[in-house]
Amino acid sequence: MIAPTLLILTVLGSLLIFERDLPTEIVDARYAGPASQFLRTENQDRIHFRDQGESNALPIVLIHGANGSLHQFEMWVELIGGKARIVTLDLPGYGLTGATASARYDLTADLRAIQSVTQHLGINRFVLGGHSMGGGLALTYASQYPEAVSGLLLIDSVVPWQQENEPGAGESSESTRTSTSEKQGPNVHNNPKDSPSKPNTNPLRTLFRIPGIQYFGRHLDPALFAERAARSAYANELLVTDALIQRYIDLSLRAGSREALFKRLSQRRDTQSRFIHFDGPTLILWGEADAWTPPTLALELKNRLPQATIKWYTNAGHLPMEEAAIDSAKDVLEFIEYLKLNRPLPAVDGPITSTETRTKMVSKIEQSAEVTKAKQRLQTFLRTKNLRVPQEVCVDC
After folding, report:
1. Is 109 exposed, middle or buried (0-12, 13-18, 19+ CB in 10 A)?
2. What is the Cα 268 distance to its own chain's centre?
3. What is the pLDDT of residue 340?
4. What is 177-229 written as a DSSP string?
5. Global pTM?
6. What is the spatial distance between Cα 322 and Cα 237, in angstroms, rounded to a whole number?
């Protein structure tokens, strides 16, 4: 009697926690936009990318983090697309790139994807940016191909020479947090050297440490942890909308993507080089309330990179390009202007809490009508996606 009961409970449990794939054509139709393009590489991998903004401007190539997609940069596209050329792509295994023909998801495959897109577009020199895991990847790329990278944007980035290479989590390692816990991190009021860093609350890290997860994880329903993961990543939970959560779920359920994720786990056990280095201009952007990649990592990156400057965003968590879209977009534009003038950015070691300092730094942009136009574009974009329009963005509220 016990055996049949256990069998029934197992079947019922499976129905509750497992979910079937969504057909690729359904997911692609739902999340491919007018700017979406697909590149077939020499090894027959299909890479999803977008090339948007001012075509004659200095290109900015942006790389998303683990379990992310190029959609996370769309607010920047709306805000600064009139002054910058922005190229975004989905890494192998993620977004609408998803599972690839080569079934390779290691570091080499990621670097090759960036190179394939930039070469396809004829971009020989560009600003390279990356968020979280994508930041570690961008830094690695810049270290290997410094002649191609005119500047680096690191957004709440992992520190590649300290990663445990858990691409499913894609965030700071346990050893990193232990080694930095004795240092200090920012809070919303103080200098980053005056308060302790937060513990990592990424639920995906716990998920990927479950014994045997690689054998059944490819069938798990991502809805079980998508909302919790999103709410731990965003400091402002008002940004965690049903539409955002559904996008994460749908992209994870895209046929082959879950299997690709666990192949990535097995393929990326190699340790990244501890000799990663980049001498060029670097802008580090960080949410002070980030609970996934501790703000102390920003200080470590700054100490390692000779031309690095940090910009802090009060009340922003792991995704300042969305949570502090306007301020971070202004800082990116300012960085681009300094690159054009071949001058270093002014050093900023802590959060910019002075209104006078902030006003001076962005006065040229603030006085321009481009700000209002950018707000209008972002407001329209958010409303079409059924997302909340923050008060500071709303033009007609």
Report:
1. buried
2. 19
3. 85
4. HHHHTTS-B--SSS-TTSBPPPPP--HHHHHTTSTTHHHHGGGB-GGGTHHHH
5. 0.77
6. 12
